[in-house]
């Protein structure tokens, strides 16, 4: 085709292909929630939201013949997912660009813009990984096969899916892993070890598909030292409640602390700093498991200063939505979507500045669909 500018649909298809291929973190979030927003005609914008429900939990009771059953309420944990960002790349188009064929136009205009959009989407989606409830902390994070096995154990306790489990690392942690002889030698990993050493491909290790991203969020801090005992007097510590009630606590819980309750598989996240003797701990996400009375509460990695460098999660952990934007009514435009990824292309002419532009934009929202299925990896 001699002139790509005249075919906005082809430009949109090319932009979508490059955008989809350039996504890393977003492509691991296989819980596509775009369809939840597509319940009415287009017209979606920043601020639109839907509610998503996580499954409830129940206590197993022993039935005695002649006795009565214990009826339990259905208490679900709900989260909201909101379209939070409208990203745009607009490029001034001159007479030269308007004469290019699709291949040249893509190289000069479409590909750089689409890749930059993908980086921004990945950075945004990656920030939601920090909502994960699980935490594995180590002074020698992933520096040995045994440490990877312990990280896998922490994820397994949270009942992550055995199939479709990902280990996403930042570049520093990727370099640590690729430098391990057990990871890159054929006598320990077979041909996969050779591929890691020759090409830097990490591949499948210990039941996890390893990926890395420059857009993994940088975060960390000093964790609290709180400990305590649960108090189930009255209607407290039920599934669906967002406050953990205790008999007493010592030490201090910091916002973002992951706390382990004896007998439970998954940690809970502290929503706000507490006093040293607090008896009510606010939670980011509602309680999702049956909490026994009088069991110990402990801060994960108590008192440690940690830096998050990766996460283990499965195919049900994250949710992403990219609902369609409306096509422009007064300008050549095309809106295209595939597998939950969408983009809009609009050609325009500004009478004020006397310039012609190509606009590539999209809507995106993301959240931890089920924070219980994410285990953060932290060095300390």
Question: What does this protein structure show overall?
Answer:
With 380 residues, the chain is α+β, with helices and mostly antiparallel strands. The chain folds into 3 domains: 4-53 and 79-129 and 324-361, no CATH class; 133-217 and 308-316 and 375-379; 224-303, Beta Barrel (Elongation Factor Tu (Ef-tu), domain 3). The chain has 10 helices and 20 strands. It has helices spanning 8-22, 25-28, 34-37, 95-98, 102-127, 145-157, 171-178, 181-184, 186-189, 191-199; strands at 31-32, 49-54, 77-93, 134-138, 166-169, 203-205, 208-212, 219-222, 227-230, 243-250, 258-261, 268-269, 280-282, 296-299, 305-313, 318-321, 333-338, 341-350, 355-368, 374-379. The strands form 3 sheets. Strands 1, 2, 3, 16, 17, 18 and 19 form a 7-stranded mixed beta sheet that branches. Strand 11 (258-261) and strand 12 form a beta hairpin. Helix 1 (8-22) crosses helix 5 (102-127).
- How many strand segments? 20
Helicity, as a percent range: 10-25%
Q: Assembly type of the shown chains?
A: single chain
Query: How many whole angstroms does the radius of gyration measure?
Result: 25 Å
Count up the helices: 10
Which tags fit this structure?
380 residues, alpha+beta, Elongation Factor Tu (Ef-tu), domain 3, 3 domains, 7-stranded mixed sheet
């Amino acid at each position: 085709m001699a002139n790509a500018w005249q075919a906005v649909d082809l430009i949109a298809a090319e932009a979508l292909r490059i955008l989809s291929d350039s996504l890393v973190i977003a492509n691991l979030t296989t819980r596509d929630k775009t369809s939840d927003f597509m319940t009415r005609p287009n017209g979606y914008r920043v601020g639109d939201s839907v509610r998503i429900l996580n499954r409830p939990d129940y206590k197993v009771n022993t039935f005695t013949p002649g006795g009565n059953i214990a009826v339990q309420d259905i208490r679900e944990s709900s989260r909201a997912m909101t379209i939070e960002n409208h990203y745009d790349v607009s490029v001034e188009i001159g007479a030269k660009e308007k004469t290019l064929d699709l291949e040249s136009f893509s190289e000069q205009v479409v590909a750089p813009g689409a890749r930059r959009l993908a980086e921004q989407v990945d950075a945004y989606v990656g920030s939601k990984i920090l909502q994960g409830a699980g935490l594995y902390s180590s002074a020698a994070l992933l520096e040995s096969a045994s440490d990877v096995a312990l990280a896998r154990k922490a994820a397994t306790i949270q009942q992550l899916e055995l199939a479709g489990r990902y280990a996403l690392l930042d570049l520093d942690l990727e370099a640590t892993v690729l430098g391990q002889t057990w990871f890159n030698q054929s006598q320990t990993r077979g041909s996969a070890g050779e591929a890691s050493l020759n090409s830097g491909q990490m591949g499948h290790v210990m039941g996890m598909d390893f990926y890395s991203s420059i857009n993994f969020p940088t975060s960390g801090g000093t964790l609290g030292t709180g400990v305590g005992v649960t108090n189930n007097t009255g209607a407290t510590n039920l599934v669906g409640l967002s406050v953990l009630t205790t008999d007493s606590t010592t030490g201090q819980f910091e916002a973002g602390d992951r706390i382990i309750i004896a007998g439970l598989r998954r940690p809970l996240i502290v929503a706000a700093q507490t006093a040293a003797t607090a008896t009510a701990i606010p939670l980011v996400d509602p309680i999702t498991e049956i909490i026994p009375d009088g069991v110990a509460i402990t801060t994960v990695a108590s008192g440690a200063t940690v830096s998050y460098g990766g996460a283990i999660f499965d195919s049900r952990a994250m949710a992403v939505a990219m609902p369609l934007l409306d096509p422009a009514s007064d300008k050549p435009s095309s809106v295209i979507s595939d597998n939950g990824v969408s983009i809009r292309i609009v050609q325009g002419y500004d009478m004020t500045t006397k310039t012609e532009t190509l606009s590539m934009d999209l809507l995106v929202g993301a959240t931890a669909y089920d924070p219980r299925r994410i285990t953060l990896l932290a060095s300390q």
